[in-house]
Amino acid sequence: MATTTELPALDPLDLLAIDALLDDEERAIRDTVRQFVRENVLPEVGDWFEQGILPRELIGELAKLGLYGMHLHGYGLPGASAVAYGLTCLELEAGDAGVRSAVSVQGSLAMFAIWRWGSEEQKGRWLPAMHTGEVIGCFGLTEPDAGSDPGAMRMHARRDGSDWILNGAKMWITNGTIADIAVVWARTDDDAIRGFIVEQGMPGFSAPEIHKKLSLRASVTSELVLQDVRVPDDNLLPGSSSLRGPLSCLNEARFGIVFGSVGAARACFECALDYAKDRIVFGKPISAYQLTQAKLAEMALEINRATLVALHLGRMKDAGTLRPEHVSLGKMGNVRGAIEVARTARTILGANGVTLEYPVIRHVNNLESVLTYEGTHEVHTLVVGQALTGENAFR
Ligand code: TGC
Ligand code: FAD
User: Fold this and answer.
1) Using 50, 70 and 90 to split pLDDT, how confident is the model at 1?
2) Whose CA is nearest to atom 10 of ligand 1?
């Protein structure tokens, strides 16, 4: 083994030198997004969170960077690797989960649904415009009475000549109010579950914003209300007729969260480490106390573990060997770990841990949504449990 004097210096923010496992292109994309977040998100995101807004201009800036649908190919889309997309999610969520959500929902949910299950005509019409941010999409699966169990959905689509008539409501839909199109999943009379592209302005369709959230405040969350909305058959996604359709899209967005949650954890760790070195209590920086060092060591351990898991899953996705069960394991572990890191960071900051002057409480609150959306911790636990035992314990 080389002596420590021959080895490169330790980087506290990359203790295991995981950076060396990335290639030049992955590093370049990561650095570009990190710089963007430093310049365009971090200076203002505390105010956005306080005001409960996500500025429209930011949505345009993310498009200019080419992030919407960046991991999809064809139709003028970049076709970046899964790892590059994951690192992008990580850097965006180091800014704020709401910003990562904007990119996840557009690229991994709305665009992916059309890319995977749409007709050639739909793909050509919508995907290029969604990549440039000209068209914003949302993804409506959850309903007031059907969240973890989307098979219980009540949204109904009935055939009427060459059209469909949709009735029902979706709940907790990211970007609903600002979206130009909504991918809405509905049950048809043959008991199939099908996806429809519902366009803003179609009579009977409204998307009121949900207020009073104390989490993911820098993100628009909405209800989708459909009352006798007439949708032409051309807007039916022809490729999917069961829950497999929407669930396949969730795999994509969940994958982004496996990486994204590491970003939130890293941001909290970085803040807590700096704070601990500067904060003098009982005559010494709190970083000099064993209890603080134990907290920092546990945080570093978790972040390095979670980064390696994310990278491993990313490599598997690029190799075509990633299964939904792998994504569930990654989402479960990395979001839980990020919450532990964020809450520990909050304790290191003392009272400053509860103000938006620092990023930590924002991430703590955001991670409560991340724990719940894209499949709750319990749902992923049962997916993994079923993979281990062969027993379905959902029902
Ligand atoms: P089940 O009978 O197991 O399966 C029905 C059909 O779906 C297939 N399938 C999958 N296909 C692809 N990927 C997956 N992960 C799949 N899981 C199941 C399955 O093979 C079957 O196919 P087929 O061809 O035989 O019809 O379905 P179930 O009703 O028992 O439900 C299973 C369960 C509970 C795991 C699933 O429904 C689930 O994942 N529930 C959680 C719902 C959820 O995650 N919702 C998220 C909404 S979107 C969101 O939160 C966006 S947040 C904003 C952001 O991302 O930033
Ligand atoms: P429920 O399903 O009612 O679950 C309540 C509790 O019961 C949870 O703890 C759950 O884990 C537990 N539970 C459920 N089933 C079982 C079981 N079998 N065994 C043990 N425990 C169980 N949805 C979309 O479609 N599109 C979006 O863009 C979107 N964006 C969102 C943005 C935000 C900010 C939030 C908070 C949510 C968003 N969602 C979106 C909705 C999200 O996906 C759902 O909230 C989530 O799937 C859980 O559904 P629920 O809230 O109805 O909880």
Assistant:
1) low
2) 244
Helix (H) or strand (E) holding 227: strand 221-232
7, part of any domain: no
**Of the residues 212, 235, 258, which one is the last residue of a structural domain?**
235
385 Cβ below 6 A of ligand 1 = no
pLDDT in tens, 255-284: 999 999 999 999 999 999 999 999 999 999
Catalytic residue selected from 25, 374, 378, 391: 374
374 is catalytic: yes
Q: Is 4 among the domain residues?
A: no
Ligand 2 site, residue 186, Cβ cutoff 6 A: no
pLDDT value of residue 3: 72
Q: Cβ neighbours of residue 164 under 8 Å, at least 6 residues apart?
A: 157, 158, 188, 196, 230, 231, 232, 233, 235, 236
Q: Which residues of 62-95 are buried (b: 16+ CB within 10 A; e: fewer)?
A: bbebbbbbbbbeebebbebbbbbbbbbbbbbbbb
Cα–ligand 1 centroid distance for 248 (angstroms): 7
Burial of 53 (0-12, 13-18, 19+ CB in 10 A): middle
